[in-house]
Amino acid sequence: MANNEFNVADERREYTHNGRLHRVDLPSDPLTLFTSWLKKAYEARLVDPAAMCVATVDSDGQPFQRVVLLKDYSVRGMVFYTNLESPKALHLAKNSRISLLFPWHELDRQVIFLGKAERLATEEVKNYFTRRPRDSQIAAWVSHQSASIANRGVLESQFIELEKKFRSSDVPVPDFWGGFRVVFDSVEFWQGGTQRLHDRFVYRRKKDLEGTRDWKIDRLAP
């Protein structure tokens, strides 16, 4: 067994940044609380507050996780963009169930969304793509996400070639690039507490009314 330079088992700290999270203070809509916490994350100048861990499952039941940036959200769902030939997109084509985790460690908070991912319409993808920095647009053409490459030079040379190709024109949206909207039916809020008595509340969409925006709120044991 390799020596462990750090004794991670003995690492401890108290979670005291935000006090208690009380049921009586929770809004009826989870996005109201999410927006408040996201705003706090930006005000605290966290690195990439909109970064979320996206979990999908392949056809063998193997889970995969990766960090992706949230680009929009509303009552309709949480939006992100990606290469449509990437593992995550291929997983979602067969199993649309997905999990999103926002890990705001510095604030002793995290939020988990569970739901189903739906492909965004072409026009919505185009509207976002045209607002991206030009280098990001070209990079979308260069990277065939998760494909094996010989070295970084392959990417850099392709980037230079495409810079020349699109020098006198707009960069079009690649046909293998798009986005997803996660239509969520569960949102869990975790706030760290002293003595490891963390506050956890989960919003679950009520099942009795089709298309309802009403939510049932439960406190969970830490």
Question: What's the number of helices?
Answer: 5
What oligomeric state do these chains adopt?
Answer: single chain
Distance between the termini: 33 Å
**The named CATH superfamily of the largest domain:** Electron Transport, Fmn-binding Protein, Chain A
Q: Indicate the low-confidence ranges by residue numbers.
A: none
What integer is the average pLDDT?
92
Radius of gyration: 20 Å
Can you identify the CATH class of the largest domain? Mainly Beta
One letter per element, helices H and strands E, the order comes to: HEEEEHEEHHHEEE
The share of residues in extended strands comes to 25-35%
CATH fold call of the largest domain: Pnp Oxidase, Chain A
Strand element count: 9
Biggest sheet descriptor? 9 strands, antiparallel
CATH architecture of the largest domain: Roll
How many distinct domains? 2
Specify the structural class.
alpha+beta
Q: Could you say which overall geometry the principal axes of the C-alpha atoms support? A: globular
